[in-house]
Amino acid sequence: MYPWYCPNTGTPVPGGFSYEQAAYLLSRLAETNKEIIGFDLVEVAPGDDDWDGNVGARMLFHMCGVFAKSQKMKVGQKIKFNR
């Protein structure tokens, strides 16, 4: 993502995705019917305020929704983990 979305990241990427672009790409991925087996959110670093944490939490929330959609889950349905 652009550095101003998470200014405290240890690895800013010039020309990275905007929040909206990343969310759009994840949503399109969920529509492909490919099996999503996991996801990771990295480089959300603490700063002087809650800005980075808020952006990270919003992206994580969206990623969980994409994962649930890819699993064809219904609202309120509990996740069953295979162990």
TrEMBL record:
Q: Which organism is it from?
A: Flavobacterium saliperosum S13
PROSITE patterns referenced in this protein's UniProt entry, alphabetically: ARGINASE_2 (PS51409)
Please report the name of this protein according to its UniProt entry.
Arginase/agmatinase/formiminoglutamase
Pfam families xref list = Arginase (PF00491)
The family note in this entry says: Belongs to the arginase family.
As recorded in UniProt, coiled-coil segments are: none
